[in-house]
Structure formats: C-alpha cells, structure tokens
Amino acid sequence: MSAFLQREILPRTMTHKFGDSPTAERRFVVSTDGETAQQDVLAQVGIYHLSPHPEWPFLSVLSISATETDPYHSEITYSYGMPAQEDANPNPLARPDVWNFSAGGSSVPAADYFQGAGNATLKPLVNAAGDTFDGVTKTEAELTATISGNRATFDVGLAALVTNCINDGGYLGGAKYSWLCTGISGVQATEMVNDAELRYWQVGVTLIYRQSTHLLKLADAGFNFLEAGTKKRCFIVDSEGTKVASANPMPLDAAGALQAPGVDVRIIERRMHPEINFQTYFGVPPF
C-alpha cells in the first residue's frame, strides 16, 4: 500500500460575474512512493462531488480532474459552483424531479362566445336565426408543465396507460378535467456514483392545462329529433306552411325534442379521454 502526502496549492480562485453564479477552484498535489491508482489518490484527499467549499459553503464541487504528472505525483483540481437543482444529490435516483412551466395558445373548437363587456356572460355561438356554425375555432391559453426526473426503470406499459389521460380531480389549482398528459419519454443515461457505474432512465412528462377543461364542447343540435320515442327528421315551415326537411342542424332539448324557436341552443360536454389521479402518477412541484 502506497504512502501518501497531500497539500493544497495556492492560490485558491473565486470568480463572480455580476448576474451570474459564482465559481471557485482549488488544487491539490498528492505525493506517493510509487505508481498509485487515481481512485486511491482521490480517496486520500476526500473531496467529492457536491462537497462544500471551505470558505463559501453555498458553492459545491461540480467538477473534478486528476492528472498524474509522474509516477510519484498527481495533481487534482476541484471546480466549485452553485448546483442548478435544489437538494442536489450525487446519486441521480435520489434527485428530486425538476418542473418547468410555459404558457402559450392553442386552436380549439369554438362553441360559445363572450357577450357584451367583461367576461361574465357566455352565450352559444349561433347566428341570428339560432343556427350553429361549423368548423369555427378560437385560440385558448394553455399552460404546459414539463417534469424531468430519474428512474431506475422505464415502465413502457404505464407510460402508454397514462398518456392522453386527464385529471379525475383538482390538480395544481386546476379543476377536474383541466389537465391532460400529452406525452412521456424515457432516455437511458449513465453516471458514476461512489466509483461505480449507475445506469438509469431520464424520464420526461408533459402536462397541458386548459381553464375551460379538455372536455369536448358541442352544440346540442342535429338533423333528427325524438318525438314520443320515435326519431324524426328535423324540419322547418316554409312560407306556405309546409314542413320541409331542415338543411341545417336544429337545436334540441335534453330529451332530444326540438327546441322552441328563439331558445338558445344547449352546449353539452363530452369526455373523450380516460381519467386518472394525476397526483398519484406525477406528484406536485416544490412550490
């Protein structure tokens, strides 16, 4: 077993540019009585990733480099900085998930509109005669949350199961059905932890929030209606008083009967996505 003699080489350096996080550097020279494995040399100094700086404890070791200058000497450089992640851990599987949020817009079908000043009155989107419009869209604000985390394994079946699902209850301040999981990814990664190779998966999740929910909103109108349990063709009355098959969908009531003239078409909601407990699968950010 080799004998060691270590000493720190001055000067220590510290750099702090305005608006940036500070960085620092320390160097050590380790002398041995012969060729020695660099792993043993590093262990002799005893400074590892995320070890705090002796003067600025908010700085941690982020990079280590070792150079064997000759069979009897090794020079080790420790670079310090501020970890980007809170509660950073040398083991990637012990690091907390990282959340990111961004807001944007998306085109969605338009079934209603704001009437008058303010945002208090929503009315069905129809023309003056009460007929519905086809293919009209509007831009709606969306909040996208991305979750990045490390997992020992990647469950392909679970990823497929929860993708395109919506929340079955309140989640992150949003109402039921307001969050949608649009995708889950997994990428293999490798790090060295405690001088041993660790293979794991970097998992990414994308969630999208809509205040109006991800339910499909439709005008309850059609070309047929129900009368005494019988389906009949919707009609209009022409100028001569004759019933003529309607060329446009006609508003219906909750029982499927024709709405009386002048009554607003009903807006109905239909759920197209499976529902799951988002908190169980995705957790919550560290607000």
Which geometry do the CA atoms define?
elongated
How much helicity do the residues have?
under 10%
Beta-sheet strand percentage?
Answer: over 45%
Secondary-structure element series: EEHEEEEEEHEEEEEEEEEEEEH
Structure report:
Strands 1-2-4-3 form a four-stranded antiparallel beta sheet. A four-stranded antiparallel beta sheet has the order 5-8-11-10, with helices on one face. A hairpin with a 2-residue loop joins strand 3 (60-70) and strand 4. It has three domains: 4-81; 92-216 and 272-282, no CATH class; 221-264, no CATH class. It has 287 residues and is mainly beta. It is built from three helices and 20 strands. The model has no long low-confidence stretch (mean pLDDT 92).
Give a short overview:
This protein has 287 residues and is mostly beta strands.
SSE order and pairing:
Layout: E1 4-15, E2 23-32, H1 38-45, E3 60-70, E4 73-81, E5 98-109, E6 112-114, E7 122-124, E8 137-151, H2 156-162, E9 166-167, E10 179-193, E11 196-209, E12 216-219, E13 221-222, E14 224-227, E15 230-233, E16 235-237, E17 243-245, E18 250-251, E19 267-270, E20 275-276, H3 278-282
Parallel strand pairs: 9-20
Antiparallel strand pairs: 1-2, 2-4, 3-4, 5-8, 6-7, 8-11, 10-11, 12-19, 13-18, 14-15, 16-17
List its salient traits.
four-stranded antiparallel β-sheet, mainly beta, 287 residues, elongated
